[in-house]
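Subject: Interface between my chains keeps coming out wrong

I've been trying for a while to get a sensible model of this assembly. When I model each chain on its own everything looks fine, but I need the whole thing in one frame so I can look at the contacts. Pasting all components below, labels as-is. Any help appreciated, I'm running out of ideas.
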Amino acid sequence: MLFNSYVFIFLFLPVTLIVFHSLLRRGLHRSATVALALASLVFYGWWSIKALCLLLVLMAGNYFVVWSLLRTRRWHLRPWLLTTGIVSNLAVLGYFKYANFFLETWGNLSGNHVGFIEVALPLGLSFFTFQKIALLVDAYKGRVRHFDPLDYVLFVGFFPQLIAGPIVHHSEVMPQFGRLNSVRMIDFGQGLTLFVIGLSKKVLIADTIAHFSNPIYDAAALGMLPSCTDAWIATLAYALQLYFDFSGYSDMAIGLGLLFGIRLPVNFESPYQASNIVDFWRRWHMTLSRFLRDYLYIPLGGNQRGQLRRYGNLLITMLLGGLWHGAAWTFVVWGVLHGIFLTINHLWSKLQLRTGVEVYSSPTTRVVAKALTFVAVLIAWVFFRAANLETAGRMLSAMMFGSNTAIMTDVTAAVTLIAVLLAIVWFAPNSSQLAAYTFDKKPMAGVQGWPHWSRSPRWAAVCGVLLALCLMSLTRVTEFLYFQF
Amino acid sequence: MQNVKSFYVLAVLTIAASICGMAMLLNLLVDPYGTYRIFKSADFVVAKPAAYRRVKLVKAYDLRRLKAEAIVLGTSRSHVALSLSHEGWSVPLQRRYNAAFDGATTKEMYAYLLHAYSIRPLRQVVLGLDFWQLGQGPAWTRPDFDPAVLFEPSASIHNAGVYLSDLSLLISIDSTKASVDLLMNHDLAGPKWLADDGQRLGDIFFRQVEPTYSAAPGAYFRAVDRQEIGFMLDDSPALPTSQRRYSPNISDPALTSFDYIAKIIHFCREHYIDLRIFLTPAHAHQLEIASQLGGWFNIERGKRQLVSLLSEDAASHPSAPAFPLWDFCDYSSVTTEPVPAVGTRAEMLYYWDSSHFKQSVGDWILDRLFGTRSKEHEAPPDFGVVLTPATVDSALESIRRRQMNYRGNQPQEVRFIKSAIEEIKQQRN
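Reply #2:
Try treating it as a single job with all components included. I did that and got this:
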């Protein structure tokens, strides 16, 4: 079930909200939590019963391992339990997501093609595998204090964030599930607003801008060298599509969480306003960056074992981060590119420290830094979007020395829309700022010169019109880009 | 929820509901796709441009409204040429519908068969297959195919979702734009080429809607040849393989285009539907294009497999009549009709272009399928042969012989096709 489908908006969500809040109002807090857990399983099972069975098996297996880690007094068994838990999760992920990739790579290297396994990747497997690995590691390290079976089921299966994040940490949500007793109307209103903003970003913006990206990349995949203008339009359009699509999804997830009284962490903070790559990764898919840092980069040694090792760790982390996004060499190259960018960024910062030159002190250099960062991110997106490495090479080559073959028929419309959307991502506040949302409920100061959400008639009118436009634009249900990861 | 002011939430929902409600009312009254037909006035159900861009959708709704008992399944060839008023049909005229549409894939045809059957049990189905549909490539659907608007037998959850799709169509921004366009420019409505029984009326479509056809039928014919070469060179769904392979969206990747023909046959057998199958008589140019591109073996293999499938079906149901398979995909006196010169306005007798034959040919096909004979307009004796295990070898041999004759008699046509293929290949490189 997709958030941008009628069955979700008109059937699943209202029924779940009515049942959940009716139980809460009657003081049946645990029953409300059970209802929410069951609804989450229905949500996931709607796509595939087989995938739901897999989710339940993984849930049960991980529960057993975590429970054993917390209860066992045989300390020598704990490393084995942890290893078994992590390896089992990775094996399942490897089978469903990477088996065909490795078979194809092996076939290409050895010349012995053994065919493919017919397997469908269960939605969100990559996301909830990471969440469970984090829980296993923290249980091993004694950092898990609250572990209730029902809260655990919701931690793994809470439908707003089940299939595309944000990747939540158990300490962020399990205590909230345990404390569920009422939902403030102001949170409900804020949640509705964030859901509508996210839905608008997905349905009204991302799906529209996609029309300027897909034909060019598809043509390049078929062997055509696009013109320079088309290649830039397509790549800029894709960068915008991806941002509005994925951040829109995260907004919807956070908004839905609030409708049930659960606060989810913010996942995007205007990433295209980043002034360097390190800054970019603090703003883009923040919950993934946090996971990679805490459960991969730091265990590898982080920056504690010398500069050379630090850069090596960065490269490994980003390479695996790239592979996490998709089973293809394009994602590997994308990850390695970001690893290289991060290394250059750290070397540059070190150089600044040594020389005492503060590059970001003037507005001009800040603009140049932001522009450079954006171009670097853009170049990496080419690999992220392209069907294969040849296509990526063709697109990059077209961006520099394009052909005379123009594919785009409406360049003016494309350029106008891209210019407007770039202005939004560069200068406008993000959804969390507009909706005044923070994970920790700290009051947020509004962005000067921009409207700040309140339960006013004006905001209600804007949200009502946006919601109506979204509902009217759902005719053709499209999938979220991030579902394939 | 705490008992605090809920004005904001109610206001958002009320405003959204009001706007959607107004859009629904507008679309219901204007009915831009002709799907609701609240007003019976002929003026209001005249040709609507938006409907002609969404023929698959219109046909799904037409089937619901008409509750057909006899349908045609097929591609644009059957869509254009098969008339529902032919005397051979065994159900009343108002219960017949041409559910064929442009570029239909076998998976789509199967879905429309299930849809029609779910609305009312079918008694008769005529299935027109193009030779490319006999292939072993993976089954697929085109982007404008929407399974959410189609019913399926005994699938109550899915069928409940169809009503949600009705809602989506009713409040969609596309429908609203189409309604507004229609209201603002009522004269946008062009010639009505889609008949109420689902047939695309060739006389109106080609002569009034396709200006290039009327200007120069010979040039139009050759342009379609070139288009067909492009389609055959692509010969695959649009997505690059690397994207499709890892995509979770492809269900049953093992099922081929041919498998869905088998599903149609099995469904008809299980539900006692009188199924009659034919291979469409594309012009010899199309056969030459397929042959020059190395596809002849696949065509013959596909025919043999279909014969074998039908023969197995007949053997396992000895008490029921066998489903007949008529092969018009041949070098007959119809399909080898000479093509007019490029500079003239002369029309062909049997063809609109190298793919689409005229209704007169469609009537001959139905004559063959239903065993009827038109006294004043009888089909040529070399038009069509029934393929059975006993006849398939000799039939294919005979087609090959006639193919050689055609090449010998029409060398300029074969040269044109060869050079067009080379030209298009070079353009693509």
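Reply #3:
Confirming on my end. The CA atoms of residues 240 and 422 of chain A lie 8 Å apart.
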